[in-house]
Amino acid sequence: MKPRQKRFAYIIVAVVALGAAVGLVLYALKNNVSLYFTPTQVYNKEAPQGRSFRIGGLVEPGSVMRRNDDLTVHFSITDNTRSMPVIYKGILPDLFKEGKGVVAQGKIEADNIFHAEEVLAKHDENYMPPEAKDALDKAAKAKSDAGGAVATPATGKKID
Amino acid sequence: MAINWFKYSAPSTFYELAGKLAPWFAWSAGILFSIGLYIGFFVAPTDAQQSEAYRIIFIHVPSSIMSMFVYLIMAGYAAVGLIFNTRLSSMMASALAPTGALFAFISLWTGALWGKPMWGAWWVWDARLTSELILLFLYFGFIALHASIDDPRRADRASALLAIIGSVNVPIIYFSVKWWNTLHQGSTVKFTGTSMHVAMQQAMFITLAACWLYAIAMALARVRSIILERERNTLWVAELPEVRS
């Protein structure tokens, strides 16, 4: 091999080896790299016990309740499989909304409620004007109404 | 008639070519920036979720994409310089580093400004943000390592290794939002399509093109200075009209 081919081979081998090593390290640290745990993971006891961690998911529609006298707010974080009741006292970000993404930092107290110290909003990667959003929402609603009426009328009623 | 491309791998001929090309790239970058930002601020509609605040995307996303692309190109030049012992490739790698670092910095800075009102935090240690910060440090490391070695050829080789090894970080940045739970949302621009209104897309891709042209213009201008500095003892530099006067 010419010296330049040798150098080329060395570099390829080094990058592949390093890539594999980094890949393995990141795979091993999977749970530490992730910013939050899902409610299902929390129920499966994969989240840290007795200390602060982050939980993320969607704000369960219909779960947000505000107290009248102070800033305390109750809501549930769901991953559509399990949901976790959360209590938080403070100002919520503007994008905090039912059915939207949220990440909360805090810990589970003895009452089995997640006491959040910080609530962050997580938005999605879709950008569209409000008119397009309304049209999409209407189409989705029409579709779910039609589907619900044909397939399972009972669940359709329950949602209402 | 075929153009002899190898002619331009010599610093003396490339110096002249870069001088001719740089203004063209700089001007077209300026024009595209104006068009892209005009569309972004006045033509593109309001976003349903984030209203007007989303418009920082027209700076944030192009600079983030560029910070990764410039790194890969820099590492590519550095690798070519290391393998083929070509002087100009290493000089191009050094010329690209500050521009890449600038893009990475703008990406982090505009991201913080965007994160505070939307997420509720300037900064979180999620995988996307942290790996982008590492990218910025890799640029700084490349520049600092190169500057710390007096012999330019040795400096080229050492910093080339750092650049090549660091390129492992780029796919991590890109896929971080897929592989792990992050606060940063998923990719809007995907290989399968873009989940964005057409006018918003146009503005973003035009500013992205402008960033490309800007990066090329800056690299060409900077490589001219590097060539002059490194070849200052040669005859052709001494005979340049701008040096003689």
Pick out the low-confidence regions of chain A. 149-160
Biggest interface, CB < 8 A: A-B, 38 and 40 residues
Query: Radius of gyration of chain B, Cα only, in angstroms?
Result: 20 Å
Low-confidence stretches of chain B: none
Helix share of residues of chain B?
over 70%
Mean pLDDT of chain B: 92
Beta-strand segment tally of chain B: 2
Question: How many domains would you count in the coordinates of chain A?
Answer: 3
Task: Compute the average pLDDT of chain A.
Answer: 83
Span of the ends, CA to CA of chain A: 75 Å
Largest sheet of chain B: 2 strands, antiparallel
> For the CA atoms, what is the radius of gyration of chain A?
23 Å
CATH topology of the largest domain in chain A: OB fold (Dihydrolipoamide Acetyltransferase, E2P)
Question: What oligomeric state do the depicted chains represent?
Answer: heterodimer
Structural class of chain B: mainly alpha
For this structure, what is the CATH class of the largest domain in chain A?
Mainly Beta
Global structural class of chain A: alpha+beta
The percent of residues in helical segments of chain A reads: 40-55%
The DSSP helix count of chain B reads 9
Keywords:
heterodimer; A: 160 residues; alpha+beta; OB fold (Dihydrolipoamide Acetyltransferase, E2P); 5-stranded mixed beta barrel; B: mainly alpha; two-stranded antiparallel ribbon; 9 helices; 2 strands
Can you lay out the helices and strands and say which pair or pack?
The complex is a heterodimer of chains A (160) and B (245).
Chain A (H helix, E strand, L loop, with lengths): L2 H26 L1 H4 L5 H5 L9 E7 L5 E2 L5 E7 L4 E7 L11 E8 L5 E9 L7 H22 L1 H7 L1
Parallel strand pairs in A: 4-6
Antiparallel strand pairs in A: 1-3, 1-5, 2-3, 3-4, 5-6
Chain B lengths: L10 H33 L13 H28 L2 H32 L8 H22 L3 H15 L2 H11 L9 E2 L2 E2 L3 H33 L4 H4 L2 H4 L1
Antiparallel strand pairs in B: 1-2
Helix pairs in contact in B: 1-7, 2-3, 2-4, 2-5, 2-7, 3-4, 3-5, 3-7, 4-5, 4-6
